[in-house]
Model the fold of this input.
Amino acid sequence: MKYGRIAGWGKCVPQKIVTNRDLEQTVDTSDEWIVTRTGIRERRIAGEGETTASMSVAAARQALDRAGIQAFDLDLILVATSSPDYLLPPVSSMIQDQLGAQCGAFTLVAGCTGFVYGLATAQQFIAGGAYKNILVIGAEVISRNIDWTDRNTCVLFGDGAGAVVVQASESPTGVLSFVLGSDGSGAEHLIVPGGGVVMPMSQRVVDERAHYIRMNGREVFKFATRVMGKAAVEAIEKSGLTLADIDLVIPHQANERIIELAARQLGLPLDKFFINIDRYGNTSAASIPIALVEAIEQGRCTENSTLVLVGFGAGLTWAAAVVKMGVLEQPRFAMWRTIPGRAKTRARLAMGALSMRAGAFLLPFYTRVTRR
Ligand code: ACO
Done:
């Protein structure tokens, strides 16, 4: 079984909405500037107690439920994030524990591109025959790494998590091809300079606000428009398909203008692109899985749809994958699936005993009626 079907999907976003109007009260910006330059109208910001792990677990539970499996069925958990709860331990192990899974787990850092890197990695474990059920999560509480006095960055980002279960399958579904790229020469364009090995946490780091994201927006914009269309085309070529076979492109939601330029480069109409940046802003590694989940919920991604997932981010990195959706099983028995294994077995036995009793009770009536 060499294919990895997307068997389950889920998302979690914080309750708290911060609108552009709210930001007008705190920094020198305007709703008009943010909407025309980025397409963002509002974003979700994690409240107290909401963490990368807690949102990941919520998204993962939905994905497991839809896939019809329990956490202990998982063989591997892969978490893409640039905002883990702690530097150590890896947030992936916290998520594994909170889900009650008994498998390996690791965190993958590739900026906003991380989820596509994760999906491609999961596909390799399945193609190699090592694993059957892999949970891939993209999650961020990036709001805690943002300088809320810096209008260049604070208007852009939001928090959230998205998760998928990749399951071994014999039919050609899941990741059909992928392209992964990195150009570290552009590292300084999107960086948190302080708090790492080069500039360990100190009063100086705090005074210089070096523990927050610093971004050269124009350079990142140029880079994004250079790589998005190119990576998508390369991934499509590798899959043996053509642009005409693509039903929907799910791009990283960083800036609506970047998405429009990518559409133009690819020669595809904008309605072939899924866009939800207006409601969430840039949720970094969570943006593509959240968009994928919403595309399914809105019926834009349906059974057997062929998708291109494409992103770019800190590193600088980029990635694209052609993904064929298989059967989209709906959570018809969602309640049933939430019952733990042992309780389910007891319920099945009770139902069996009940129907045997009912059978024994009804049998004499049945024989009397059929004899007449
Ligand atoms: N409100 C009002 N004015 C602003 C704001 C703001 N929030 N932010 C910047 N400006 C001002 C600038 O100061 C500048 O003023 P000046 O001309 O007096 O110097 C002016 O607006 C224009 O600035 P530009 O940088 O040229 O604006 P641009 O049209 O390039 O848009 C933006 C800026 C939105 C940041 C854009 O460059 C962009 O989206 N870049 C990509 C960013 C990105 O995708 N980052 C995430 C990468 S993914 C990851 O891994 C996290």
About this structure: The chain has two domains: 3-324, 345-371. The longest strand covers residues 3-12. The chain has 13 helices and 13 strands.
